[in-house]
C-alpha cells in the first residue's frame, strides 16, 4: 500500500493547477500555411485560462503577425484549429468570435 501522505500531496498539487492545466498549444506550424503567417513561430503554452490566452494570442498575431485582411484571419483560424487539440476548439472559436466582435465595434476613423 502506498504512503497516504504522498497521495494527499499529489491531490493538493493537482487541485492547485486547476482543471485546464493539461491543455496546451502545439509547437509546429502546418506546412501548407502561406502568406504573413508562414514565418510565424509557434509556442507551447499550458493554460489555466485557455479562452483568455487564445484571445491574447490571436490579438498579438493580428497586431504583430501581419494579419491585415479577412483571408489572413481565416488562415489564422486554420492554424489555431490544426495546431491544437479538439479539446480546446471551443475556446478557439469563442476567442475568435470575441476578437471579431470587438473589431466590428471599433470606430473606423472614417466616420464624420
UniProtKB/TrEMBL annotation:
Example GO biological process: negative regulation of DNA-templated transcription
Residue intervals of the OVATE domain: 43-102
Main location: nucleus
Localization of this protein: Nucleus
Highest rank taxon of the organism: Eukaryota
Metal-binding is among the record's keywords: no
Keywords noted in UniProt: Nucleus, Repressor, Transcription, Transcription regulation
UniProt GO cellular component terms: nucleus
Pfam families per UniProt: Ovate (PF04844)
PANTHER family recorded: TRANSCRIPTION REPRESSOR (PTHR33057:SF110), TRANSCRIPTION REPRESSOR OFP7-RELATED (PTHR33057)
Alphabetical list of NCBIfam families matching this protein: A_thal_3678 (TIGR01568)
Role played: Transcriptional repressor that regulates multiple aspects of plant growth and development.
Name this polypeptide is given: Transcription repressor
UniProt organism field: Musa acuminata subsp. malaccensis (Wild banana)
Amino acid at each position: 500500500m502506498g504512503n497516504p501522505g504522498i497521495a494527499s500531496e499529489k491531490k493538493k498539487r493537482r487541485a492547485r493547477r486547476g482543471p485546464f492545466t493539461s491543455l496546451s498549444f502545439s509547437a509546429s506550424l502546418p506546412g501548407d500555411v502561406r502568406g504573413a503567417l508562414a514565418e510565424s513561430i509557434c509556442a507551447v503554452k499550458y493554460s489555466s485560462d485557455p479562452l483568455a490566452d487564445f484571445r491574447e494570442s490571436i490579438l498579438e498575431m493580428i497586431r504583430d503577425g501581419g494579419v491585415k485582411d479577412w483571408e489572413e484571419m481565416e488562415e489564422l483560424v486554420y492554424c489555431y484549429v490544426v495546431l491544437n487539440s479538439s479539446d480546446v476548439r471551443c475556446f478557439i472559436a469563442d476567442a475568435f468570435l470575441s476578437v471579431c466582435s470587438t473589431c466590428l465595434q471599433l470606430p473606423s476613423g472614417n466616420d464624420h
